[in-house]
Write a structure and sequence with these properties.
This protein is an alpha/beta fold. 41% of the residues lie in helices and 19% in strands. Helix 1 packs across helix 10 and helix 11 crosses helix 12. The protein starts with 5 loop residues before the first strand and ends with a helix. It folds into two domains: 210 residues, 3-Layer(aba) Sandwich (Isopropylmalate Dehydrogenase), CATH 3.40.718.10; 129 residues, Isopropylmalate Dehydrogenase (3-Layer(aba) Sandwich). Bound molecules: 3-isopropylmalic acid (IPM) and magnesium ion. Magnesium ion binds next to helix 9.
């Protein structure tokens, strides 16, 4: 019987291909041991799509992604594409998917797995048990707002510019997601902007405050400037529960939060749209926060865990498979507890393995957990 879970798989470039291959093995395990089947289609995105199809995202791949129940994404980019015109760069494929699918809510959970406490560059007492959620607005702000471009000035210079603009409704819809997330967590939201210098930040704070009064009085809300938030993340990260912020600040702060967990190779993400009125399911894309890592691509060195944790988020948010999502996360925890480490999370006394070895460790852990 064909599965009614339609997943569009887009491995992309660099280590994206390797970590996706690892993900496919976990999917196969679930099909075999849990009868959890997926109807998988695969497509090209980023540099791989440019090479084969002449653009970083073809209309057909976009249409297939929109039609799927969920998109599983690897990573895009590579130095060989550096000189391409802006619209042909691999990243444009990813940004077009986010925009065209209206995936405005980007969930980036930074959790420290107990066996990895020592891998963080911060002191153990600061990060052990850490569990924060960065909620990044993903369809607006300086990534997309007009006007933007590079233009010639009369004096022969050039001017490059971007616009950081947010409307009331764009801020409200992300604020609502933040309050909803906090309700299922510790009930606290920190809203982050630069209202001391930016008008978009002034409006951001105003709208979040009003929404809080109207719909979020059960949530403890505080406001923080983005520079202070970066500092607080490395000073006392456990003070946060949900951090809600704009597209650009969210990009920066989530990389920062990732390192608290030991490595960028550990951070998953879910990018969600509004729930479909009929099915209740949102348009959704799941991707590891790390990039294509061209320096280690093709060498069996990539850490597949952020990809596998993104897959667990897909099971949870798109398919309601809570038990299987927990199972994958527990298997990751167990694989780490077994002492196997890829290079990015290596510490003394552990065993260095490649992408395949780490995948094997997760599969073994799944076997043990299923017993
Ligand atoms: C991320 C990445 C992307 C971004 C790049 C690859 C376009 O850094 O998802 O955080 O800037 O959003
Ligand atoms: Mg980033």
């Amino acid at each position: 019987m064909a599965s009614n879970r339609k997943v569009m798989v887009l491995p992309g470039d660099g280590i994206g291909k390797e970590v996706m291959a690892s993900n496919m093995q976990i999917m196969d395990w679930l099909a075999k041991h849990r009868s959890l089947d997926f109807d998988v289609s695969e497509g090209l995105v980023g540099g791989a799509a440019y090479d084969a199809e002449g653009a970083p995202l073809s209309d057909e791949t976009l249409a297939d992604s929109i039609a799927a129940d969920a998109v599983l994404f690897g990573a895009v980019g590579g130095p060989q594409y550096d000189d391409l015109p802006f619209e042909m760069k691999p990243e444009r494929g990813l940004l077009a998917l986010r925009k065209e699918m209206d995936l405005f809510a980007n969930l980036r959970p930074a959790m420290v797995f107990a066996p990895l406490v020592a891998a963080s560059t911060l002191r153990s007492d600061l990060v052990s048990g850490l569990d924060i959620m960065i909620l990044r607005e993903l369809c607006g702000g300086s990534y997309f707002a007009e006007p933007r471009g590079i233009e010639e000035l009369p004096d022969g210079q050039k001017k490059g510019y971007d616009t950081n603009a947010y409307t009331t409704s764009e801020i409200e819809r992300i604020g609502r997601v933040a309050f909803d997330l906090a309700r299922k967590r510790a009930g606290r939201v920190t809203s982050v902007e630069k209202s001391n210098v930016m008008f978009s930040g002034v409006l951001w704070r105003e709208v979040i405050t009003a929404l809080h009064e109207k719909e979020g009085s059960d949530i403890a809300l505080n406001h923080m400037f983005a520079d202070n938030c970066a500092m607080q993340l490395v000073r006392q990260p456990k003070q946060f529960d949900v951090i809600v912020t704009d597209n650009l600040f969210g990009d920066l702060l989530s990389d920062c939060a990732a390192m608290l967990t030991g490595s960028l190779g550990m951070l998953p993400s879910a990018s969600l749209g509004a729930p479909d009125p009929e099915t209740g399911l949102p348009q959704a894309m799941y991707e590891p926060v790390h990039g294509s890592a061209p320096d280690i691509a093709g060498q069996n060195k990539a850490n597949p865990l952020a990809q596998l944790l993104s897959f667990a988020m897909m099971l949870r948010y798109s398919f309601g498979q809570m038990e299987e999502a927990d199972l994958v996360e527990q298997a990751v925890d167990r694989a780490l507890a077994s002492g196997k480490r890829t290079g990015d999370i290596m510490s003394e006394g552990c065993e260095l393995v490649g992408t395949d070895g780490m995948t094997r460790a997760v599969l073994d852990a799944l076997d043990e957990l299923a017993r």
